[in-house]
Design brief:
single chain, two-stranded parallel ribbon, elongated, mainly alpha
Length: 1001
Amino acid sequence: MLPLFGDEHRRRRAINLGGSQSVTSQAAILEQAKALRFKREVLRRREESALKIQSWWRGTLEARSVRRYMRQLFLQDMTSLTGLRCLVFIGQDDDLLRQWSAAMSADDHLLFGGAGSQDKAHWVTLLCRVSVLLIKSVAKEPSSHPALTQLQVLCKLLDPSYGARVLGFSDFDLPRVLTQYVMQYGLYQNVRSSIEAIAIDSKDDPAIPYLVKLVYLPFSNVPPLTELFTQYMHALAIHILTIPLLPYRMPLRSLSQFSAKLPLAYLQALSSCTTDIVMQTSISAQINIIANLLHFIPPRYAILPLPSLTAYIQLLRALLSALPVHALDPPLPDAKSPTWEEDSDVDDEHVPGGPAIPRPALPVLDARTRKRLQTLPSGAHLNTLLKLTHQHPQLLPDMVALLVTLHIVWPTAKDEVLGTLLLYGGGGLVREIYRDQVRPTPLGRDENIVTIMDPSLQDWWPPLLLLTELYTHTLRTMGDDEFFSNSRTLLTLNELVPFSRTLFNIAFALYWRDERLKLQDTHVPGLNLRWTDVRERLTKCLQAIHARDSRRPFMPPNHWSVGTQIDMSSFVDAVVHEEQQTDEVSGPLITAKGRQTYFSHLFPRLGILSNIPFAIPFETRVHIFRLFVQTDMAKRGYNHFSRFNRVEVSIRRGHIAQDGYDKLSGVDLRAHIAITFIDQFGEPEAGIDGGGVFKEFFPSLCKEVFDTDRGLWLETKKNEIYPNPHSYASEAHSLSWYRFIGRILGKALYEGILVEVAFAGFFLAKWLDKQSFLDDLASLDPDLYQGLVFLKNYTGNVEDLSLNFTVATEEFGVTKAVDLIPNGSNVAVTRENRLQYICLVSHYRLTTQIKLQSEAFFEGLSEMIDPKWLRMFNQQELQILLGGANSPIDFGDLRQHTQYGGLYGDEDPTIRAFWKVMESFDQEQRRAFLRFVTSCSRPPLLGFKQLNPNFAIRDAGDDQHRLPTASTCVNLLKLPRYTNERVLREKLLQAISSGAGFDLS
């Protein structure tokens, strides 16, 4: 349709011709009503908010108006009471506070004028509030000139003598009231903020003397040892002594005044709030308290009363107990790793499968703080404290607890601390601790060890732990002669018996009940020390004492026995089961210490065998060792009477060591090794190796590789061998030989083959992961040992000996000095550090020089024998395990466990003649016979009943000219039926002394 009248742009109305229709539901109506209600609520809230804003704005305008009015009144008469009221009403107006302070500082009579007026009470109240405003204003800009004026006014107000002198009053209580008020409202907090806002080295800042004065003035306004005095002391410790480098921020005059005015004679006021101080401060703040106390208190030790000294030592101990290990010697900011990273006291291990125990974050310490903290473990400081303890025996328990806590939190200072204690009084302190604080206590009386973790015993653990550490440290630098002489021994041998038994009972209980008591997760009451660490400390001391007893027995019979506490038969079964379970354990084990702690936790019997094995009889441990080997063989599927997995090797008689090295280095030595000897003509020798040829090969191999002429080994004066410390012995080729020899020796232990080689005790200690000390040096270098003993007991001036921290070594005729510590050539040996020098020299000669060689050897040994199996024995026992007991051969025992084959029986005439001939042999002939039939000249450790298989004699025909022969693989003697005793003796001696190998017939 064409648009008419130009309305084509108009919108047409939409007309519904069908009638009206509503689709609004009930729910829609309710929603619409709800929306309307919400809209009205929003509108109402807006109206209320508008009214509040208007009210606030009107109030603000009114307040501004009033403040302007008050400001005008103040400026008209700022020195009057009205001006003071206006100042308080206006509040924190720094400009007005500066003006008022300037006016008051100019005229002291204006400042104290209200003291004599009728409105004194109002004046005092107003001054209290103004004082708080002033100190807050100072804290904003403490170095500004107006702040200096405000500080001067505050010091005048709080000084009890100043106002009294101005007014001529004898009793002027304004400073006391003001002090109580400003202390309540944060005086020390604001003083701390002000001091920290000033650069540390800005000692010339004029505000510092006044801020220092504000610290000690409150104590002039309160009687000592009152409740208020205690509150002020608490605030001082929390807010002022926690300021980093506090003494270094003060000029010398202020420092002297501060030190003199501090109420150090009443430190006992802190006794009631020591716990609160520790709880309310951070690690950094606690270290600052310690450092600041060490600056102000030690110079006044001599004049401090006993209660103050006691409180000081208790506070130091509480603060140290709250710190994480190494908090006092954290790594330097630019250090890649801490110097104590390898320290054995660092606890970073955790139980696999369980939550890791994170090492707490250590604070960063300023160099000056570090230097101040060095006072704490220094010999001079400790000697002063020990002298005070001698004057006041009541201090000894707290002093002992402090010393224990100190070397727990600062392990790297432990040697210095223990050395100082041992030098003091010639060992008298050790005897005093034992006789007064260990022997009479429940722990020392060997009472019921079920209750050792009872919190009621917490006071008795520090003396026992300190005594344990001291005695362990003593034995490190004490030779056997000195130990047994009783002349310089810290404890007599009679005292050592009950002391060692106490340690033994506690350590055994902690190993035996580890899994139930959860030692890894619990701490000793009152000490920052886990029970596993306590156990480790006791174990070290026990091992050191037992080592002396092993070399020269002095303990009573059964001293190291657990008695009836455990059934040995069930113990053996259980420990074999635990050993089988160890292979099923997985998880990260961070350190060797962590690994041992973990196994002791999960397998308590293995823990006992690895740490205090002497609790179990030696014969039982040898039996357990053989069971471990048998279990390992079964697990690996090895059977020496089967040809499966058999390794066949040809060895030239004249080149046993080299051929053994070349052909066995890459072989699994747990398998059966079948040896074929090649004689001098290049022909294989007769004989099928069922084990016996290898047992003949092995002693020959050992004779060559342990020959000192080869350059790998040296001998001590007792003909005991140890790795050559020469540099060429640490070259790669030599180390591979050490590794090979370790594997071969492991094979001997695995097979139960006895080796007639004697190793030096300090070298055997490396196999057991033990340190060697001065007593071991006697066998290596007697002259050096005697020199170090002389140095230890020297009564003159040690520095006259002109020693330094170096040790001389000689190679190829050239002598050079090796530093024992960094820059050791410039560090003199003194009376205080001579024990450290002795330890370092011993460690260098016994450990450092042969470190690479020992590690290579032990690496090879560990391929064959699990290290924890070896830790079941000490050095002497390990030597017996290797070479057998050097005891007379008992042919009666051999006859009792002999089997017969063929026509022979025990009553056969030839057999009776044989045993008669055996009884006529001397010990050398007996050893030669034993070597002939078993390949080893020494009897089995546990008697001939342990010979596997048992010794047997079988008839070899009636040829009277035939020599006896042997099958060493089955310990069998093939003996012709000789009819004459003389012929039997001659033929037998000819056979056992010929050494003709398997070609003998």
